[in-house]
Design a protein that fits this description.
With 171 residues, the chain is α+β, with helices and mostly antiparallel strands. It is built from 6 helices and 5 strands.
């Protein structure tokens, strides 16, 4: 199965190969919709699996987040990325394999406001949820404005086990 982005690129490439003379066929659209639906289903399965295996005491509507194209990033307590939703690739250009194990700071660059990062760190170290808009950079170097909310995730014993970031590009 192709990822949504790979499938869309394949369609675009096919269309440009015929010099724009061939319209999209209806099965192309159906297949793209199915690929997006499959990615969302996979994201929900993964989020619920993580919630169960990590024993998260967290009451978030993952379905609503995924269906509304929010990007979700899960890190461990050292802020190493453990998992990202499929929309992460569309927003950043990086796959899960490229991001896993890295600190989300790899997305930041010269226009990222250090005061906002400091605010986020201070809030998270205090065990609070933090919200901010920061400039991140895609894999191709293009900057984008990202609205994010990061929350510490606790297990049923009240111990912090992960951070969960809910992100959306501001357009």
């Amino acid at each position: 199965m192709f990822s949504t982005a790979a499938f869309a690129n394949m369609i675009k490439h096919s269309y440009t190969q015929t010099e724009g003379k061939s319209p999209l066929l209806c099965w192309d659209i159906v297949r793209l919709d199915r690929a997006e639906s499959s990615n969302r289903q996979h994201d929900l399965i993964m989020l619920n699996s993580l919630k169960n295996t990590q024993e998260w005491a967290l009451n978030l509507n993952f379905r609503a987040l995924v269906q509304n194209d929010f990007t979700i990033v899960i890190t461990d307590m050292e802020q190493r990325i453990q998992w990202v939703s499929s929309s992460f690739r569309q927003m950043t250009g990086y796959s899960l394999q490229e991001a896993k194990g890295r600190n989300p700071s790899f997305l930041q660059g010269e226009s990222t406001d250090l005061r906002r990062l400091s605010f986020l760190r201070t809030q998270l170290q205090a065990g609070n949820t933090a919200q901010a808009e920061i400039v991140n950079y895609r894999k191709n170097g293009e900057p984008y404005l990202c609205r994010l909310e990061v929350l510490p995730v606790r297990n049923h014993q009240g111990e912090p086990v992960n951070y969960l970031a809910i992100e959306k590009e501001v357009k």
